[in-house]
């Protein structure tokens, strides 16, 4: 947990019996606070001489009040992306016998709007700014099952490359649901996750719901459901991995909240969001991985995604304005290298139009 300097277990025999007492010695760290800085490369959509570069800075305390509570102030900054975040976490609320954790966060983020609204034909950029504040609780409720619920306020709006608030993109598609320069919403969130043993034959299931609450007449009211299932199967040195994800949105929502299809974590062989953006979606993937040498493994994969014909029901039909197909598939090969931060993925895929594309990402495919 980062709060202990040393942990040791000493076995001691109990009389003449065959039982053993285990004594655990814990040495707490003298200081659990510090500052970290770093940099990296993002696989997101960026352009220019510094495309993809990210810098980060964090100030943290891992043992607040001597109760293993954590306070973190962090900054991540890229060419377009930025995230400023203050996060407080109590990993086990005192007096609770259900192992419930509590997290409070305030965040200001900016991200490219290209997933849904694409690269502007006039080469201008469009960013989505989001201010979020909320609280969430999480706890295990059965072996391998974990549940999370929370309440979050969000204020979201779009800006052009000069930082000026805008309400429509190049194609005159709306960028907010309210017609104002920003949308306000209060979201109740519920998530349930099943995690298997982690071995090659394990499974994973995640289901989450976001519900906009009608606190004010101008605040957005919508319901968004998203689910993902994954199943692994080991056959000799090979591992087969099948995954399926899907979702649907009902109610009044801004176009940038639509489900974007295509990219490194969706349908490879396409740019991020290039297949479509819809009120509904389904994406399936099949992979076969095999060891090569040491931490390196090879992979062969095929992906398919569709907006289920819902692209035109997104306000302004941003996918239709950009002639996105609404469905597509890709197939390819790649290598993965195990690292402390997760697998490094380098993949090459062809889409159903015969166009090839490299994908680089860190971590397992979402």
TrEMBL record:
Bacterial surface antigen (D15) domain boundaries: 63-365
Keyword field: Membrane, Plastid, Plastid outer membrane
InterPro entries: Bac_surfAg_D15 (IPR000184), D15-like (IPR039910)
Pfam family name, one: Omp85
Gene3D superfamilies membership: membrane protein fhac: a member of the omp85/tpsb transporter family
GO biological process: chloroplast organization; embryo development ending in seed dormancy
GO CC aspect terms: chloroplast outer membrane
Keyword DNA damage tagged: no
Protein name: Bacterial surface antigen (D15) domain-containing protein
């Amino acid at each position: 947990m980062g709060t202990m300097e040393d942990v040791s277990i000493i076995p001691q025999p109990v009389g003449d019996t065959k039982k053993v007492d285990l004594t655990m010695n814990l040495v707490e760290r003298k200081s659990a606070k510090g500052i970290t800085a770093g940099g990296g490369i993002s696989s997101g959509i960026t352009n220019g001489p510094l495309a993809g570069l990210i810098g980060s800075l964090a100030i943290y305390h891992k043992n607040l009040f001597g109760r293993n509570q954590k306070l973190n102030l962090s900054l991540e900054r890229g060419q377009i992306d930025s995230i400023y975040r203050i996060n407080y976490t109590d990993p086990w609320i005192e007096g609770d016998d259900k192992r419930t954790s509590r997290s409070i966060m305030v965040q200001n983020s900016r991200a490219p709007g290209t997933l849904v609204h694409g690269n502007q034909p006039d080469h201008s950029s469009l960013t989505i700014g989001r201010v979020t504040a909320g609280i969430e609780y999480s706890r295990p409720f059965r072996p391998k099952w974990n549940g999370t619920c929370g309440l979050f306020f969000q204020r979201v709006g779009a800006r052009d490359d000069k930082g000026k608030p805008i309400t429509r993109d190049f194609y005159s598609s709306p960028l907010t649901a309210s017609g104002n320069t920003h949308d306000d919403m209060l979201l109740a969130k519920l998530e349930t996750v099943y995690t298997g043993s982690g071995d090659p034959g394990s499974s994973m299931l995640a289901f989450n719901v976001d519900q906009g609450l009608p606190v004010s007449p101008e605040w957005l009211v919508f319901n968004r459901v998203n689910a993902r299932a994954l199943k692994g199967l080991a056959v000799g040195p090979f591992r087969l991995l099948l995954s399926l994800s899907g979702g649907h949105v009902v109610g009044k929502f801004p176009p940038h909240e639509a489900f974007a299809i295509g990219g490194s974590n969706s349908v490879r062989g396409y740019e991020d969001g290039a297949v479509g953006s819809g009120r509904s979606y389904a994406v399936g993937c099949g992979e076969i991985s095999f060891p090569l040498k040491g931490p390196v493994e090879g992979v062969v994969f095929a992906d398919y995604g569709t907006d289920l014909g819902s692209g035109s029901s997104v306000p302004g039909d941003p996918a239709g304005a950009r002639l996105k197909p609404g469905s597509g598939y890709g197939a390819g090969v790649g290598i993965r290298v195990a690292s402390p931060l997760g697998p490094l993925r380098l993949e090459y895929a062809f889409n159903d139009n015969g166009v090839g594309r490299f994908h680089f990402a860190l971590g397992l495919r979402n």
